[in-house]
Design goal:
- Helices cover about 35% and strands about 15% of the residues.
- It is an alpha/beta fold.
- The chain is globular and about 50 Å long.
């Protein structure tokens, strides 16, 4: 557990409910094959890096999620250019392409990912900003590096909860990354991610929590029926509105479903 980003209590056995009517095995295999093909296409284009226009990146990101069998609905939009800190609640590995579908950004990720076979090298080449969650003394340097990227006019995407949650509960946004937005003088754009099943109830199949393996999570998502990802892009918090990172993190924190029940954002299917 990190000294400054605590882990979530969610586990696959305790929080992930079995799919009532799983998709047929051939369909699940077809979905995973489509995901693999899209990932290979992304790997081929990776050397081009940030020279690839934002439009194709957003299209590719959306189709990664759609290929896995998850429909996508988005409400709102992010600023298309300029320094911006995108922050979202964290449930699944699907959250990463969903944020890229909102606006391509440099992702903030834990250093363990750099050590993953193949994926770690690809993430580094793709511009991921790595952070060591267990080394508190490295935190100021990480904040300064993120602030420098933001000042240069790029977007940075982060999951300030520091861990994935199952979707039926959520964590608290930690404050550290918000200091980078304050130092760089850029807006913060909160994004609210939900996964729904039949009847609009929370779907836990996409959750990637606890000691879950990526392979098990991939199969669970590909085998699920009728999962919808709802992505609500909230109005940006302008630079200078909050004087300290504590109040900025609190303002960006997504509402619970009960608090959000009064709102009816206009979602579009993509």
């Amino acid at each position: 557990m990190s000294v400054w980003l605590p882990g979530a209590p969610c586990t696959p056995r305790g929080c992930v409910r079995p799919t009532a009517r799983p998709a047929a095995v051939p369909l699940a295999v077809l979905r995973l094959t489509a995901v693999a093909v899209l990932l290979l296409a992304g790997i081929v284009l990776l050397p081009l890096g940030r020279r690839i226009p934002a439009g194709p990146v957003r299209w590719w990101s959306r189709w990664i999620v759609r290929a896995a069998g998850v429909r996508v609905r988005i409400a709102g939009a992010a600023a298309p250019a300029g320094g911006l800190l995108l922050v979202a609640n964290h449930i699944s590995w699907l959250d990463v392409p969903l944020l890229a579908a909102v606006r391509p950004a440099r992702m903030l990720a834990k250093t363990e990912i750099r050590r993953w076979p193949v994926a770690g090298a690809l993430a580094a080449r793709g511009g991921v900003l790595f952070i060591d969650l267990d080394r508190l003394r490295d935190l100021p340097g990480t904040v300064a590096a993120v602030a420098a990227v933001l000042r240069a006019g790029a977007a940075v995407a982060a999951f300030p909860e520091g861990s994935t949650w199952c979707g039926r509960a959520q964590g608290t946004f930690r404050r550290a990354v918000f200091q980078a937005a304050l130092d760089a003088g850029v807006p913060v754009q909160p994004v609210r991610i939900r996964y729904l099943g039949a009847g609009g109830t929370p779907a836990t199949a996409p959750a990637f929590v606890g000691d879950d393996t990526l392979l098990a999570s991939l199969w669970r998502v590909a085998s699920a029926r009728g999962v919808v990802a709802e992505v609500e892009v909230v109005a940006p918090i302008p630079a200078g509105r909050h004087a300290d990172r504590r109040s900025l993190a609190l303002a960006a924190q997504p509402e619970t479903d009960a608090e959000h029940a009064h709102g009816h954002p206009e979602y579009r299917i993509i």
